[in-house]
Design goal:
The structure holds two protein chains of two kinds. Chain A has helices at 2-16, 20-26, 48-63, 83-88, 135-149, and strands spanning 34-39, 70-75, 93-101, 107-115, 120-129, 162-169, 172-178, 185-189, 194-199, 206-211, 218-223, 229-234, 239-244, 250-255, 262-267, 273-275, 283-289, 294-299, 306-311, 318-319, 327-333, 336-342, 353-359, 365-367, 373-379, 385-391, 395-401, 406-412, 416-421. Chain A is mainly β. In chain A, the strands form seven sheets. Chain A has a five-stranded mixed sheet with strand order 2-1-3-4-5, with helices on one face. The longest helix of chain A has 16 residues, at 48-63. The longest helix of chain B is centred in the N-terminal third of the chain and has 23 residues, at 2-24. In chain B, 38% of the residues lie in helices and 20% in strands. Chain B is globular, with a radius of gyration of 34 Å. In chain B, the strands form two sheets. Chain B has a four-stranded mixed sheet with strand order 5-8-6-7. A three-stranded antiparallel sheet of chain B has the order 2-3-4. Chain B has a single domain, classed as 60s Ribosomal Protein L30, Chain: A, CATH 3.30.1330. The chains are: A mainly beta, B alpha+beta.
Chain lengths: 422, 201
């Protein structure tokens, strides 16, 4: 009898030894709860420990993979957590971090992540930066690593730069790189009117933008690290780089060489541009879709802005949107299009612009925002998030997490957002 | 009973040992890996007007703009051009919401401007006319830049029809980047939907 009980208990233990965290991730209705703690021997320089704590919490919230985290302010960095107490409070993960400075005055953030349900230390890492201003990227990396331990869907995009232009005054704008929360910002182009920045590739080493510093609008390519400038093209009236192919070799441009705005594709290797649209009105804002075989763009060929598609190399244009009377600014990812639709027709008062998502392969339509002025949508590289601009009396950078039905807004303190890319 | 309790206690101890054995199979990272966030952004450069280096960008237009001044009243926008000491006032043409066609009133304004330009051009062979298209703040910015350009084109066509040589005319669109007012009302939005004329000797 005793042997049977012992065997039963042993069997039960092995059954319970399955990784509890994996079970939590698979059950979407039961998100893990994480407790984030700062070490009591952290160096409190410029309140960096509190700033890091808040930003890590924000990152985990935005990810959608965690319950809102709890935070106790101070503990000993090397102290083993009280697992039972944490489990009694339904905590699944426990993160303690410590901020120090080395002999060269570099910030070092040491972290320890514990899996409470397994009673073990699962990550022991260090992160460094030479500048206080860059602390947001420390927080993003920490959040990404926590998320990776959980094997949750990737949030690596949090570590990428956002590039945007903002109007400062009449015919004056500057181009800025930032983290996705706009906490870190660095001006990379200033002086005059510089607009529509666009990353040249996913590596984010260079970007394109339109400069008005010359006699006619010019498309410039600038290296982010060497400051090398390359003049690609000029065009009477306007020139904008609207999209870049996945391999970075082809650009979708809006140009007006004969004062007529149309869509072009420019091959960066052969330096040859090819005209795609021939309509006498307005064709702008082209984006590659369906493996770069098609262009989705905005046109007023129905006497109001709407979204159309055209297969490259073929004649004929296909209408994509059948609702609304003013649809503009589209972005694409695989077979999906997100666009901004004006939902009021009022030249005498405030207008509402909402974002919608459709599929090019079906009748699927989904409204992504409900009120306000929401424009300039941009898909993330993995297609799971949308970056956009929301305007009230201020400008906000917005993030929509498509799989979690959540959106977040980050205010811009100076200027008015003109365009964004990530 | 005591025997059962004793055996249960032993089982619990056994479980504890087994838990310890199971945890050793779980991988954890004990390394200290310094992820240096600086590599990507230590050397990000800034380009501005003083350091921009390209061989074919012409700075002349920027200098010419410095001599110009705008005068606005309650319903129209007027641009003052200084052509070697001679002041020429040219009224901007305005457009309806989302449109780029000159209505009859604005066609008259365009014709009036042509007369002044033609008179000035008699004395200055190299005179150029720069038409700047502008929009209100509604709509997408890329579409607005195109809309501003179409407005400039419509104004250019009017000048050509009246007799100005096409080669004298250059156009640019500033979209919504060049407002003459920033109030949130109908009158201001109307003021911003315009094409400005600038004379360049």
């Amino acid at each position: 009898m005793n042997k049977i009980i012992l065997l039963f208990l042993v069997f039960f233990q092995f059954a319970f030894s399955v990784d509890a965290t994996m079970e939590i991730v698979k059950n979407k209705s039961s998100l893990p709860t994480i407790n984030i703690v700062t070490a009591n021997d952290s160096q409190n320089i410029n309140s960096i420990d509190i700033k890091l704590l808040k930003l890590i919490q924000k990152d985990l919230q935005v990810s959608g993979h965690f319950n809102d985290s709890l935070a106790i302010v101070k503990t000993n960095f090397n102290e083993t957590p009280q697992y039972k107490v944490l489990r009694d409070n339904e905590i699944d993960l426990y993160l303690v971090f410590q901020v120090t400075k080395d002999s060269e005055q570099r910030y070092i953030v040491n972290t320890k992540l514990y899996d409470v349900n397994s009673n073990i230390l699962v990550q022991n890492k260090s992160y460094t930066t030479g500048s206080f201003a860059r602390y947001p990227f420390l927080a993003h990396k920490i959040a990404i690593d926590i998320n990776s331990y959980l094997k949750a869907p990737s949030i690596d995009w949090m570590d990428k730069f956002v590039i945007f232009s903002r109007y400062l005054d009449s015919k004056t704008s500057e181009i800025v790189i930032s983290d996705y929360t706009l906490t870190y910002q660095k001006v990379v182009v200033k002086g005059g009117l510089n607009i529509f920045p666009k990353w040249a590739s996913s590596e984010q080493n260079a970007f394109y933008y339109t400069s008005y510093r010359g006699e006619i609008p010019s498309l410039i390519k600038q290296n982010l690290y060497t400051n090398k400038l390359e003049l690609l093209l000029t065009s009477d009236g306007m020139i904008v780089c609207s999209d870049v192919s996945d391999d970075g070799k082809k650009l979708v441009l809006t140009m007006a060489p004969n004062s007529q705005p149309d869509i072009y594709i420019y091959d960066t290797e052969t330096k040859i541009k090819k005209r795609i649209t021939y309509y006498t009105g307005i064709d702008v804002g082209g984006n590659f879709v369906e493996n770069d075989s098609k262009i989705v763009f905005v046109s007023d060929r129905l006497k109001y802005p709407n979204i159309f598609a055209k297969k490259i190399g073929q004649n004929g244009v296909e209408r994509m949107i059948y609702h609304g009377r003013n649809n503009s600014q589209s972005t694409t990812s695989d077979d999906y299009i997100v666009y901004s639709s004006r939902e009021s027709d009022n030249e005498f008062g405030s207008n509402t612009f909402n974002l919608y998502m459709i599929s090019t392969k079906s009748d699927y339509v989904r409204r992504l925002t409900t009120d306000g002025r929401n424009q300039f949508p941009k898909f993330s590289s993995n297609g799971e998030s949308i970056l956009f601009i929301k305007s009230t009396d201020k400008s906000y950078l917005g993030i929509i997490r498509l799989n979690y039905n959540k959106s977040f807004l980050f205010p811009l303190k100076t200027g008015k957002l003109q365009s964004i890319d990530w | 009973m005591k025997s059962l309790l004793k055996n249960t206690l032993l089982s619990v101890c056994a479980l504890g040992l087994l838990a310890g054995c199971a945890s050793k199979d779980v991988e954890y990272d004990d390394s200290t890996v310094a992820s240096n966030v600086d590599q990507r952004i230590d050397e990000v450069a800034v380009s501005d007007e003083s350091t921009m280096v390209t061989s074919s960008i012409n700075q002349n237009m920027t200098d010419a703009n410095d001599r110009l001044q705008k005068i606005t009243n309650s319903s129209v926008n007027t641009v003052k051009s200084d052509v070697d000491g001679k002041v020429v006032l040219l009224e901007s043409v305005h457009f309806a919401f989302d449109k780029y066609k000159l209505n009859d009133d604005m066609r008259e304004v365009a014709t009036s401007n042509y007369s002044k330009i033609d008179e000035t051009a008699q004395s200055y062979n190299d005179l150029k006319i720069k038409l700047e298209g502008n929009c209100d703040e509604w709509g997408s910015d890329e579409y607005n830049y195109a809309l501003g350009l179409k407005r400039a084109k419509a104004t250019k066509d009017a000048l050509i029809a009246d007799g100005i040589d096409e080669k004298r005319i250059v156009m640019v669109s500033f979209g919504e980047s060049n407002p003459v007012c920033t109030q949130k009302n109908t009158a201001c939005w109307k003021m911003n939907r315009r094409v400005d004329y600038r004379l360049l000797p």
